[in-house]
Design a protein that fits this description.
Helices cover 64% and strands 11% of the residues. Strands 1-3-2 form a three-stranded antiparallel sheet. Strand 2 and strand 3 form a beta hairpin. It starts with 7 loop residues before the first helix and ends with a helix. The model has no long low-confidence stretch (mean pLDDT 92).
Length: 148
């Protein structure tokens, strides 16, 4: 029988939960409590390119359409983004950052950078690059399993 601490699923899950808890605490301590860890993928995509169509934003953030709808609702409620009809396609919406969403970039990225430094303290850069490559492969494999 496999030891729980040797189970990759257990380790991924625990690392994800610990990271999320740390980010939530650090964001709150930095006065950015309205920024939830779940928002970070969408925010990072919009900070790179504002005004994306909702479908494209979801694709870039790696989120399912059903997940995106609720997430965008909460982010809009929290004053971080706005939806507007796409002038080129009346069925689609463009997602744009509000002034508060744009202002959040620097402080949030400082929190993320500090949190990542703490979490990966003592991990050689080479090992971190290997970890990222392995996680990318896991994501590709997991997404492929979802395909019929």
């Amino acid at each position: 029988m496999i030891e729980v601490t040797d189970c990759p699923y257990y380790l991924l899950t625990r690392a994800s939960l610990a990271t999320t808890a740390m980010l939530r605490q650090q964001l709150a301590a930095a006065g950015a409590e309205r920024i939830r860890p779940a928002y970070l993928g969408v925010l990072m995509c919009l900070w790179a390119e504002d005004g994306l169509r909702a479908v494209e934003l979801g694709r870039r953030a790696g989120l399912e359409p059903s997940t995106m709808t609720g997430l965008l609702d909460r982010m809009e409620r929290d004053g971080l983004l706005a939806r507007a009809p796409d002038p080129d396609d009346r069925r689609a919406h463009r997602i744009t950052l509000t002034a508060a969403g744009r202002r959040a970039q620097k402080p949030v990225m400082r929190v993320i950078d500090r949190a990542l430094e703490r979490m990966f303290e003592g991990v050689p850069a080479r090992d971190l690059e290997t970890l990222k490559a392995v996680l990318r492969r896991v994501l590709v494999n997991a997404n492929r399993l979802d395909q019929p």
